[in-house]
Fold this sequence. Notes:
The protein is 71% helix and 5% strand. By secondary structure, the protein is mainly alpha-helical.
Amino acid sequence: MTNDLLLIAGTAATIGFIHTLAGPDHYLPFVMIGRARNWNRPTLAAVTALCGVGHVLSSVLLGFVGIAIGAALVRLELIESVRGELASYLLIAFGLAYGVWGLRAARRGHVHRHSHDHPHKHDHPHDHDHDHPHEHGHDHAHDHERPHDHYHVPEADAATKKSVVFWSLFIVFVLGPCEPLIPLIMFPAAAHSLSGVVFVSLVFGVVTIVTMTALTLALHAGVKLISTAWMERYVHALAGFIIASSGLAVAFLGL
């Protein structure tokens, strides 16, 4: 491995880190959805990492196809630009749709979370979403020892919602390009060897995915410390509009 290739690999790692850190769309959607849906850390990390793999791999595959057919760099950059615009608009649409759904859910009756010990098979405490409709916003009391006094989201419905949220985010991130990857990393590495392209692409991808996941987990831990009554009621709406805002920042501010 030549010194030039090692330099390109070091540049790939640096660009991957900075590119991810500077783009709120790389982590804010996961932070807010994780907070709204009360995902645990392993679930949040897995969703973030899988979306990161799709995000990086789509640009890597495009870069390899371009190198293989001898496509001009400017043409690949144009494709990446179109993909970037499409992904940002889809992120805005997803955020707005989720935010509107959250507002409707809050108007019907607020959803909040408690950890209860229920006598299920394995006797593990776990979280349930509870929907407590109230007409006048008065404080209310309920006895959690009686299992029929509150509404439990069916496991099948919860799994379906999680699946829809995951696939929506995954598609957005697959369409979203890693803008610096092809022009700054893959094309310079292609001047050395095909194995060099694979190596620097792998370095960029690993750094990007690890940075995405680490930032998401760190910010999610901080956001979970913020707990107020109004936030619990409007947490889904807040998550959606923050996600839409991150999409707007990408689309119109170039973040």
